[in-house]
Design a protein that fits this description.
four-stranded antiparallel sheet; elongated; alpha+beta; 164 residues; two-stranded parallel ribbon
Length: 164
């Protein structure tokens, strides 16, 4: 694991550093958390997308699994990603906050999978002492992915709150 300050490297230097690490350590997984820092070093979206496309193509040819995160602006409601690189991804997982029963909760949905079918439900998830727990589909809500859910049923399927 290496932490890189986006302000210290140009996007080209960052790409070269990733390539060198993959070759030197035969890395099988690369995580870029987040593209927002990469974008800060390269504010023109088209140039960023070209750099990302080139880097992701290289990593794909090397058989490297690549995970990218993009922080969206805004916590709830209409959230905007600073740059759209979803067309470069094989799979897109959307994580959202929503409110239910007076608590801030988290939802997960697979919105794109390039090959094969994927689940189309929205599920609550929790990161806790036992790791990641994924709940039942949120069938009692509408609008969860917009961040402004409407409750249309009962609390069945909601995850039980852990002791704080």
């Amino acid at each position: 694991i290496e932490q890189v300050d986006a302000a210290e490297l140009t996007p080209g230097e960052f790409s070269e550093r990733v390539r060198n690490f993959v070759e030197k350590y035969q890395a099988r997984t690369v995580v870029i958390d987040s593209i927002n820092g990469y974008q800060a070093a390269m504010p023109q979206e088209q140039a960023l997308i070209l750099h990302m496309h080139e880097l992701l193509q290289y990593l794909n040819r090397q058989g490297v699994t690549t995970l990218l995160t993009v922080a969206q602006h805004g916590l709830v409601g209409d959230m905007k990603a600073p740059v759209d690189v979803t067309y470069l991804a094989d799979t897109v997982i959307l994580l959202r906050y929503f409110e239910a029963a007076g608590r801030v909760r988290r939802a997960l949905s697979i919105v794109k999978k390039r090959t094969g079918a994927h689940e189309d439900t929205i599920r609550e998830f929790r990161l806790g002492k036992q790791g990641l727990t994924i709940g039942e589909p949120l069938t009692q809500f509408q609008g969860v992915l917009r961040g402004v859910p409407s409750f249309v049923g009962d609390m069945r399927g909601m995850m039980v709150d852990e002791a704080l």
